[in-house]
Design goal:
It is built from nine helices and no strands. It is mainly α and 205 residues long. InterPro entries: Homeodomain-like_sf, HTH-type_TetR-like_transc_reg, HTH_TetR, Tet_transcr_reg_TetR-rel_C_sf.
């Protein structure tokens, strides 16, 4: 006998995401999700205690889908600079995929993305760290680069690109976003002179 438990849960989560994108978070009820998924309301409650639990699961599902998108965007890049530029482009493109502009109620977006903000930031940093470590081995970045710190810093910038509109940067222009990252991010990982004061003297103990 085939176990359809995982399949049913996935269908409910993916349907919930579709409903949230179409109708908005507040306007979507558990009944709406059940109807769209082709299951009964009691079936939904077999997997989720309440709507909040569905929202959390949908957010996690969207996050994992996002990382797969970002990994694909970075996989075709040859250098760290290309990889991080590709990651930034994937992030700004995901803004329209996850939260269409016509439904972008700031409070809803805030609810979806900041409920577990610290965990999301940590996960994003962990995702990026291997790329930075590999770049240290190839000499693309300075040898004294704090990989975890740099990964968290760039993760925070990706969050900002996702959440914050810009008056000077066209976030719908992939080339502009990539150029912004190349100019202001990657080269900061390379130039060690900014960390070494010119007249610093070594003190003898």
């Amino acid at each position: 006998m085939t176990d359809t438990t995982g399949d049913t849960r996935t269908v409910i989560v993916e349907t919930a995401l579709s409903c949230f994108r179409t109708h908005g978070l507040r306007r979507t009820s558990v009944v709406d999700i059940a109807h769209a998924a082709g299951v009964s309301r009691s079936t939904v409650y077999e997997y989720f205690a309440d709507k909040r639990a569905i929202v959390d699961a949908a957010s996690e599902h969207a996050t994992q889908s996002f990382y797969r998108r970002m990994a694909r965007a970075m996989a075709t890049a040859g250098t760290l600079e290309d990889q991080l530029a590709g990651a930034a482009v994937a992030v700004v493109q995901a803004r329209h995929f996850i939260v269409p502009e016509r439904l972008s109620d700031p409070s809803e977006v805030h609810s979806l993305l900041t409920t577990n903000a610290a965990a999301l930031l940590r996960e994003c940093g962990q995702f990026l760290a291997p790329y930075l470590s590999a770049a240290k081995l190839t000499g693309e970045v300075r040898r004294d680069l704090d990989v975890d710190g740099a990964a968290e810093w760039f993760a925070r910038m990706l969050f900002s690109l996702f959440l914050t509109p810009s008056e000077r940067l066209d976030l719908d222009d992939a080339d502009a976003v990539a150029g912004f990252v190349r100019e202001h991010v990657v080269r900061g990982f390379v130039d060690a002179r900014s960390r070494q004061p010119p007249n610093r003297q070594r003190q003898v103990p």
